[in-house]
Amino acid sequence: xxxxxxxxxxxxxxxxxxxxxxxxxxxxxxxxxxxxxxxxxxxxxxxxxxxxxxxxxxxxxxxxxxxxxxxxxxxxxxxxxxxxxxxxxxxxxxxxxxxxxxxxxxxxxxxxxxxxxxxxxxxxxxxxxxxxxxxxxxxxxxxxxxxxxxxxxxxxxxxxxxxxxxxxxxxxxxxxxxxxxxxxxxx
Length: 187
Description:
The protein contains seven helices and four strands. The protein is of the alpha+beta class and 187 residues long. It has one domain. Helix 1 runs antiparallel to helix 3. The N terminus is likely disordered.
């Protein structure tokens, strides 16, 4: 289990870029900071929840965390930082995670790029809103629910929870999706 636990940590955490490295323009500083904090908090909190679920019963338990706790965490963390925060992918498990319009070009670009080229990014969504996005790279432990050979008991639970699931067939190192936040610029 130590190897699986390490893989989960690697799956959920990506390199934290400093806000200084990401600033698109000085007016976006506060918005970028709040968005970055929200994304990092969502990743870390979700990681802890998934670790507990995996330790308590493996991938079958992790399904409930992603289905129920992840959206609740996104709402709570978003309210705390005064942002919208969430996850998305090109292969959705839940249609509620469909990419927002500003995320689609980033997602399309990252699907063609190497892992090293997928860096956290600040995007000007509008004159009043800044977006921040980080990639989620598929790690070994992700394959338990998102790989090419998901155990049938896990697949059955996934199908029951997500009848239109497309989030399988990933290999280690693939772009699994992204974590994003939108923050309103404060004048």
